[in-house]
Write a structure and sequence with these properties.
The structure holds two protein chains of two kinds.
Chain A: E1 2-10, H1 14-23, E2 29-33, E3 49-50, H2 61-71, H3 78-97, E4 112-120, E5 125-131, H4 137-151, E6 155-158, E7 160-168, E8 171-179, E9 185-195, H5 216-223, E10 228-229, E11 234-241, H6 251-254, E12 258-260, H7 268-271, H8 281-293, E13 308-311, H9 317-323, H10 325-335, E14 344-353, E15 357-358, E16 364-367, E17 370-377, E18 382-383, H11 395-414, H12 429-440, H13 449-463, E19 467-468, H14 470-487, H15 501-525, E20 534-535, H16 543-546, E21 548-554, E22 560-566
Parallel strand pairs in A: 1-2, 1-9, 2-6, 9-17, 15-18, 19-20
Antiparallel strand pairs in A: 3-5, 4-5, 7-8, 8-9, 10-21, 11-14, 12-13, 13-14, 16-17, 21-22
Helix pairs in contact in A: 1-4, 1-11, 2-3, 3-11, 5-15, 13-14, 13-15, 14-15
Chain B: E1 2-11, E2 16-26, H1 33-44, E3 63-66, E4 69-72, H2 78-81, E5 88-92, E6 99-101, E7 104-105, H3 108-116, H4 136-141, H5 153-157, H6 160-163, H7 170-180, H8 192-195, H9 209-213, H10 220-237
Parallel strand pairs in B: 1-5
Antiparallel strand pairs in B: 1-2, 3-4, 3-5, 6-7
Helix pairs in contact in B: 3-7, 7-10
The chains are: A alpha/beta, B alpha+beta.
């Protein structure tokens, strides 16, 4: 079928829903999502939204912007960070007014708590900036925005997997989607398309990400020839549940939780004497890996899968139950322990892509030569860049509510002044070919998708993880290239058309393979250490040569070509990063 | 350990009648049931249909009946449902919603009932560029209801829906309660028509099955009763009787 809208929003998480709410003020808008409503991974975010309300401690948006820039190891575009921290305040009030049930101060105002890397007065001391709703802030955002979409009659296409973007030169014409229920291919014509498809943590073995986080938007645009920005910067959150990767919010440390090695030592004292356990995530993850590799993990065998303890027992049962109830629930379910009485075994878990689809501060997709017409991206799949080389805790939610909202507002204006797109009848040709190729397995019936998936996750985890070096990344690049070749031999078992989730799974795997290649190749190319990109062979930050964004393009022959883009350092001079 | 999964398979659109199929899988006792289902699709039978996403009990995609009880497959470990002597796990789709394929059910009606109770804030007053003031006590009054992930486990477990498919169902009432109990909202009046009618809130007979299965530990029956009481109080204050189809 062919549908016609002013605006199509791809993805039903926080960024997509906020954009849809804003765009639908003037534009005929559809949300196209591969999931049912409210299943998106925004709902798993726990700790809070950073915004300088100053409800608890004295605070200023400017301090938030500075922390964001410093936390990102100066690869952040500074004007974008200023917009982020200014708009955060407005967006938090807007969400509250729309019903988001924030936790409250004794005075009845929005309560705030500490989070890693957030300080007052340019690094002086930790500040209470994270606006939270217990430890399910993301769940509340997702619920609130979906509730508002119901109220405003936004149209949803549930379980439609977008597989291609329609481009006429540098102007968008719509998207092509695969309907899970019927297996049919549909064309959505639109004047504006926003990708808000979230992250792609599933390329790594240990991850906090949902099975659905397969980077569909970035992969589709990369195959359309649009370069991806700063893909080498991938965040490993310090505290995932050992072996499973399930997130234990930084809010636990914000409430006073302490990391300890096998000797019971509070080891962060040696790595970040001022902020201690609330140093930025890249630093804490490296500290944990160093403890583990030097034999001070809990098992003490120096192996990469050893772990440390996150201790919240001294906070008292009341605090645990009031401030981190879901964490308590996860620990009881998956570890059979109660964090009020026992320390939690944790290890770094692949968590967040700082890189992605390059955009400006209105969410418009840009490359080295300028903006594309009508093409937008927001949320984790986008790279504005407000996270630079390392994102601060809470800033993911800030990013999606600020830039999801701004993109939606821009779309609402943009569609007024633009004509309906001309879309050729065979605009879905490439997508049909891609799906037929997967269905019919042009090269035969070999290739086991589970095996390819597993080997991709292993090579990315071992070779493009917390610590990196040239040899390991070269292995990852060649492994992933080989897996992409093997992928073309896969033949699905399910030959049916209705609810064929296997086909969807293969489309997702192909997306992850393409993004793994871009990630590994971008990482290998950057010969310095900055933020989350930490190299044994180049341990120092090198501003002379590398204070620039990577733009990595996937060529038709499956190679990666790299260009660069300047970083906006118009407000603060880059300085060494200590905490 | 080796466990036997007996999965109710069906594909109505393709004309496949339902039958239990048996899969023997090697698992750790601490593995999630979801892990085993993922293994089956990846290595044994790619056509097995089920939904999943977050895999740690917050997205609500993978509610199903496991040994007869509604659970999230990602929040159920094998040690919760098997013993060394009895390592058989029966897996079936949710009830009261049409099966699409295997463990996937059509949730359209569930979401239509959810939408019918106006599950969004209807503010008492407008505020601009600041927050509504709400005390910690006022916030606590509706905290439990905000935990709902719309997984439909309660909707499947509710025995009332066996007899009366038009019953609004537990999840939608929880959503109504979430707003009625929120001090910032206009409350009951705006949602009265949907709740105070014979197929609205009144069919509930306190069977507690919803509360028993809720993977978020929401005391659903209690919230339903509190809401019933609010409605009764409201009607009495106006000299009216509730519209449960029986009162006069």
């Amino acid at each position: 079928m062919t549908y016609e809208f002013d605006a199509v929003i791809v993805g039903g998480g926080g960024a997509g829903l906020y954009a849809a709410l804003e765009a639908s003020q003037t534009a005929k808008t559809a949300v196209v999502s591969k999931l049912y409503p409210m299943r998106s991974h925004t709902g798993a975010a726990q700790g809070g939204i950073g915004a300088a309300l100053g409800n608890v401690d004295r605070d200023r948006p400017e301090w938030h912007a500075f922390d964001t820039v410093k936390g990102g190891d100066y690869l952040v575009d500074q004007e974008a960070a200023r917009i982020l921290s200014d708009d955060a305040v407005r967006a938090v009030y807007d969400l509250e007014n729309r019903g988001l049930p924030f936790s409250r101060t004794p005075e009845g105002r929005i309560d705030q708590r500490r989070f890693g890397g957030h300080t007052s007065n340019f690094g002086e001391q930790a500040v209470k900036r994270s606006c939270y709703a217990a430890d399910r802030t993301g769940h509340m955002i997702l619920q609130t925005l979906y509730q508002q979409c119901i109220k405003n009659d936004v149209q949803f296409y549930d379980e439609f997997q977008v597989v291609d973007v329609i481009m006429n030169g540098r102007t968008v014409g719509g998207v092509v989607a695969f309907e899970l229920k019927t297996g049919e291919i549909h064309t959505f014509k639109a004047k504006a398309v926003l990708f808000a498809t979230g992250g792609f943590g599933r390329m790594f073995r240990i991850t906090s990400n949902a099975h659905a986080n397969t980077g569909d938007g970035p992969a589709i645009l990369a195959r359309a020839g649009i370069p991806m920005e700063d893909m080498e910067f991938y965040q490993f959150h310090p505290t995932g549940i050992r072996g499973m990767g399930i997130l234990i919010t930084e809010g636990v440390r914000g409430e006073g939780g302490i990391l300890r090695n096998k000797d019971g030592e509070r080891f962060m004292e040696r790595y970040a004497p001022t902020l201690l356990d609330l140093a930025p995530r890249d630093m804490v993850s490296r500290a944990i890996m160093t403890e583990v590799l030097e034999g001070r993990g809990i098992r003490g065998d120096g192996k990469i899968d050893d772990f440390v303890y996150l201790d919240a027992t001294h906070l008292g049962r009341e605090t645990v139950e009031a401030k981190i109830p879901d964490i308590q629930d996860f620990c009881k379910t998956y570890l059979a322990i109660d964090p009020a009485t026992a320390a939690m075994p944790v290890q770094p878990t692949a968590h967040y892509a700082m890189g992605g689809i390059p955009t400006d501060t209105h969410g418009r997709v840009v490359d080295g030569t300028g903006a594309y017409n009508g093409l937008y991206a927001a949320g984790e799949c986008a790279c504005v860049s407000v996270h630079g080389a390392n994102r601060l805790g809470t800033n993911s939610l800030v990013d999606l509510i600020v830039f999801g909202r701004r993109a939606g507002q821009h779309i609402a204006e943009f569609v007024k002044g633009s004509d309906a797109p001309s879309v050729s009848p065979d605009a879905d040709g490439a997508a049909r070919k891609r799906i037929d190729r997967i269905r019919e397995a042009r090269n035969g019936d070999g290739g086991n998708p589970a095996d390819i998936y597993s080997r991709m996750q292993s090579t990315m985890m071992e070779n493009v993880g917390v610590y990196r070096d040239d040899d390991r990344m070269a292995v990852a690049v060649s492994d992933v290239q080989a897996l992409r070749e093997e992928f073309s031999f896969i033949k699905p078992q399910d030959t049916g058309t209705d609810f064929n989730a296997e086909i969807l799974g293969l489309l997702e795997l192909e997306n992850l393979l393409d993004l793994s290649l871009l990630t590994a190749a971008s990482a290998k190319n950057r010969t310095e250490s900055r933020g989350a990109h930490s190299r044994r062979d180049y341990p120092e930050r090198n501003d002379d040569e590398w204070l620039k964004h990577t733009l990595a393009r996937l060529t038709n022959s499956g190679e990666v070509e790299i260009e660069y883009k300047d970083v906006d350092i118009s407000i603060w001079e880059p300085k060494p990063r200590t905490y | 350990m080796t466990v036997t999964l007996e999965i109710l398979r069906q594909n109505p659109d393709a004309g496949h009648a339902s039958d239990y199929r048996t899969y023997r899988v090697e698992v750790e006792k601490t593995d999630r049931v979801l892990d085993a289902l993922m293994d089956i699709t990846r290595t044994v039978d790619g056509s097995l249909g089920f939904r999943r996403s977050c895999a740690h009990g917050v997205c609500g995609s993978d509610a199903m009946r496991i040994n007869g009880k509604e659970r999230l497959a990602c929040k159920t470990l094998f040690q919760d449902v098997v013993t060394d002597d009895d390592a058989v796990v029966k897996i079936e789709p949710l009830r009261h919603l049409p099966v699409q394929k295997d463990l996937m059910v059509d949730q359209s009606e569930f979401f239509a009932k959810f939408r019918s109770v106006k599950p969004y804030i209807i503010p008492k007053e407008e505020v601009v560029e600041k927050e509504f003031i709400q005390s910690q006590e006022e916030r606590e009054l509706f905290d439990e209801a905000t935990k709902c992930i719309n997984c439909a486990a309660c909707y499947s477990a509710c025995p009332i829906l066996d007899e009366n498919p038009k019953f609004l169902g537990p999840a939608a009432i929880v959503q109504a309660a979430r707003f009625i109990r929120d001090s910032r909202d206009q409350g009951l009046e705006a949602r009265l028509d949907e709740l105070d009618r014979p197929d609205g809130i009144w069919p509930c007979q306190n069977k507690f099955e919803c509360t028993r299965v809720c993977p978020r530990d929401i005391k659903i029956t209690k919230l339903i009763n509190l809401t019933k009481r609010e409605i009764t109080k409201y009607r009495e204050s106006r000299g009216e009787t509730v519209r449960d189809g029986q009162s006069v």
